[in-house]
Amino acid sequence: MADVDPITLQVIQARLAGIVQEMQNSLFRTGYSTIIRESQDASCAILNKQGEVVAQHVVLPLHMGAFPACAAAILKTFALPEIEAGDAFITNHPYLGGSPHAPDMAVLAPIFYRGEWVGFAADMAHKSDIGGTVPGSGSGNAREIFQEGLHLPPVKFMSRLQPVKEIEALIAANSRTPALVIGDLRGQVGAARLGERRMAELMERYDKDTVIDSTELLSSYTENRLRQAIASWPDGESEGESFVDHDGIDLTRPIRIHVKVKKSGAGVHFDFSASSDQTQGPANIRPPLVRAACAYCLVVLVDRFLPVNQGLARVIEATFREGSVVDPRFPAAVNTYMPTALTVTEAVLRALAPFVPEKRIAGGSGSAALVLGGRAAENDRAYVHYEIFSGGTGGRSGKDGVSATAFHLSNCKTAPIEIIESEFPTRVERFEMIADSGGAGRWRGGLGFARDYRILADEVRFSMRTDKHTIEPFGSDGGLAGGKGACVVNPGAKDEKRLPSRFGDYRLKRNDLLRVERPGGGGLGDPLERPAQNVLDDVRQGYVSLAHARTDYGVVVDFKYGEPAIDPAATQNLRGKKSN
Fold first, then answer.
1. What is the pLDDT of residues 487-519, one digit of tens each?
2. Which domains does the chain have, with CATH numbers?
3. How many CB atoms are closer than 10 A to CB 289?
4. Global pTM value
């Protein structure tokens, strides 16, 4: 490997980051579906010839594990002479590729520089519908991946710059929204082509060997930076666990994610062997994604500005038990993997907390995906209304949780109300944070939110993939749990129906009201140690009610001159009683 001077190395690092960001912007701006255009459920990356990530724009950290697994499948399927300039490979198979689930379609375009293949420009984006038993291809009741939609092993979508018409036709014929899916796929190819051009320009400017050597140096830097930080932690073992509500089939059995962490020297090993068996329903998750969740946890505990590359993966040593929820056997269903992935993250962060106690965090809301599908009355065309939500984060060491936001492995955006109402037969009648949903603590959990939808079509098929409706987000170090989530049809009416946290194909009719309530985060630390002024500020903001200020925090707030104010004597007396 040639020496690269530090200034050139930093410039190339910045250029790599800029290339994947430009790819990402192109993908979002050419997206046909609201999933890509508004929610931004997609990631872009540059990979080397071995399929290793050398640069990634992290929207979804799990794709750090998905991209290499997809590349490995392509390299296994296609011989080197079959990889040609102008090609674009696609795959969405969780077992024969590396996609998290069928809707996540990966596009990998080989990068050629002066006739030599040097790597891949890659992107992965969620599709509005890829077949399966329900609109949106995400039934919470699926029992095998064959019920989750069309699955493609690695195939060519483009060959020498020409579309492979048979593959495009096959995909279109298996989607309820073919124009959106094909349009988004073509946008993905365009973003990958942009990455190809920019990488060739970078090599033209700095020389191919210099760029390739720089990517290896940057991966080594990331690995060394992580190992140095880990070496500074005390050696030892620790365990952590968290639970998923259920798998969508057996609604009475929580799913346990357990991890045992062994830290020795500059290495850390994650053992998931004690996690629950693989589930009948689609709550399973594949090992490449679990490793990516572990890498995410190390990044946030060490340095969130670390370059995202294969150096992260080199640090991760993990053990799985085949046939478990984190290492399922084919064809176990996987489409509601994201709530499980976030539960994995919480378990790992709990296990790592003793090693980095200054960066503790309580439990968060998890994620949610809502899908309303049907046919539009004005043109009889199928539509799929797909949204991604999170909620409140847990209280953090030194900071309150964040309200109504995406976090951890999900950085997607909540679709604007104006877009939803202009594109789908749905009216959003309420969108507000839920008071008292953040768990009480020295550091309060972030609040969840409520969103009400009025159904404006005659028949709508409703599916949802979420969590934390049964098991609340946990509090930590004396903090209280966050509020649970809920999904209610026609709340308060005679025909009110409360739905579980994951299901598929519930039928809604015109004028039904659908209420989605997202959980708040758990609190961190003793609520009685929260400064009374902070509690008063929460009351003024509407985050905490007068009743919960008294019962949870021991703070008595009354009204003087029409404004809420602390009653010091009553507060001191109440807090004294509570602490005894």
1. 999 999 999 999 999 999 999 999 999 999 999
2. 6-223 (3.30.450), 360-527 (no CATH), 531-579 (no CATH)
3. 30
4. 0.95
